Predict the structure.
Amino acid sequence: MPDLIQMLHAMTGKEIFDHYQLIALAKGLGSQEFHYGNILYQALRIEGEERLFALLELAENTGKRISLSYSALPDDNQYERDSAVLV
């Protein structure tokens, strides 16, 4: 039986995204899985489906995870999420 890592490598970006969202719902609020599912959802809103799904496939194939990158807004020194990156 293939392990989870091998199964994720064989999935499309959309399937990987859906997989992490289901785990986030199952583990619930406050869990690391919920936090990562939220990051992926925010990355989807920032980057769009095509870019995020490609990043997810790359992340799974290289053993990395998606993270959000922040940049300072010049007017008020607040931070705004503006891109998804691999870490």
